[in-house]
User: Fold this.
Amino acid sequence: MDSRHPFPFLRNKEIYYAAQLNSKSDGVYYGIIPLSGQFEQLLFIKNPDGTTSFAFADELIAHYAASIFNKSTLQNACLFRVTRNADITVDEGMMDHDIDFRDVMSELLKKRRKLAAVRLQFWPSAPQEIVKFLRDKLVVPADRCYTQTSPLDPGLLFRLASRVSADSNPAFSYPPARPIQAPADYDLYAEAHKHDVLLSYPYQSIRPFIRMLMKAGSDPDVVSIKMTLYRMASDSQIVQALINAAENGKEVTAMVELRARFDEQNNIDWSKQLEEAGCTVFYGFDDYKVHSKLTLITSKVNGKYHYLTQIGTGNYNEKTSELYTDLSFITTRQEIGEEASAVFNNMALQRLTSEADTMLVAPLRFKSVLLEEMDRVIAAARMGRPASMILKNNSISDRDIILKLQEASCAGVRIDMIVRGICCVRAEVPGKTENLHIRSLVGRYLEHGRIYSFFDGAHTRIYIASGDFLTRNTECRVEVGVRVEDPVLVRKLTDILQLQLRDNVNAREMRPDGSYQKVKPAEGEALVNGQMGMYELLKNDWTQPEPWRLSAAVQEKQPEPSAEAAKPEPAKTEAAPAAKQAEASHPESAAAPESGDRFDQLEQMVNHKKRTACPCSQADKAGGGGDTRPQKPPETDFGFFQVTQIIFARPDRANPLPGLFACLPA
Assistant:
């Protein structure tokens, strides 16, 4: 680069070779060579002994690049990569009622390629002269410059893993694990009309759901299919099923979220194909992303409308359904179908849903419902009942929920949280969250499902949802969830939670200082893999009408089911000694009141620790007597808050989290 060669535009995430040069005529100057896209980036070499070696092309080029500048003296050199900002927002001036929002997004994607640089990565070292030169040209602060010894493009490791897998080297591969396939004659469409169904990915195949869509598209009774689409596979069979239904004359409506980060172009392309097939496509809200996973199939029989509703925790994506753990709930309950229909109607009108009884619908009927459930559990604990909560999601940062968790802990509620990622609350902090226990599961699959279970000492109320406890989910997105009421599915979800709470292979538990400690089995204790154990848990799910067996501690004593929940009971088995010990050590669990809910003992199974009475709960007992009303959480001292990398601030709160402490799972 000199007076005749200006500084070039550096593309996002492409790899470049940078050299500091010196010549007698020009003095010190710099040269840059683009590497990405011109060569096969990963090279495999077959060795004479039959083994295979590999090399990264950019490292080979870096080794010989000095010969390109043969007239100059090479002083310093390295490889580097630029990362550009990916946040795109729709400017008010870009919006026009006469312009298709899809065209606006297409223009924004072009602009994103040229957004400001936000990070510089160097390999294998970072010569200060080169770093300063690039920083000055790209205006990147020093704390956004990183030196690394691993490959600059980690995506190449996927190709390397695929090659290792193709060579069938068991030392470097997981043992084979495939989704459990449904029997050839299994008809999910017919089964869902008999009873509620809950599928669990990736342990069960998504194919029955796709076949259900295909069958609905050709069913003469079906009049319409509506679906929200957030992230789709590049060769999506699910979208193809919608296209086929439209071509069969069905009324197909697709809510396509064009702002799904890094999937914008894919969603733009699919929206065009859906429109060309005759589907009605709309793009949701100006101010809220639609992150919901919702499908509604409407049929008309004998002049009456009937609904089949699917509510999930994960995307309609065949590829990620084999990598992410997610849940898919399918029901023909009329009241849920009516609520889902109202949600679709509201989205089409850019109107938020404010009323729902069984469904959770953010931002107006999601957090408020869950806080009400927590208040119910807190009130039960203050009455002396063995109340507990199990909350599984990806992340938590919502201030209101964190304060409510502190209140619940101080009231004596046993809280178990399974939080894979960002966690802005600390566990087991004396006087604040002593009864809150947090673990993170990181294993073969990406934990992605959200399950919220509330036990008030008599009844379990359990939800699945698409939204986490991040403020962006609870207040800034349209999320959906549902309360699962079928006793068989309540038991199924509870067994899944119990399995994950027993995991001693993938689990790390948070300590009061915010750090995480790997869970290791005690001497003589069996290994429990909460992910691989799902295959055993679900092995009979397709073929048995009620495959779930309660854990031994629950089977030993079950109250009679109510008339509403009456279903065939599985055979009872002798309680395991360990389960009997657990029950004996927690007499408060055995004293739970009898009720018509035959699952009233489920949540108590996790009470492996004695509840600790926090100072605030002691104060309640001393001064409040029998007052069971939810108490106002403390206004000050937020020392139990914890923030990791991202802070979600709200405009109405100048200082949302006064005490900030960083922590990530090890």
Observations:
- Residues 61 and 153 are 15 Å apart (CA to CA).
- The longest helix spans residues 367-382.
- The two ends are 43 Å apart (CA to CA).
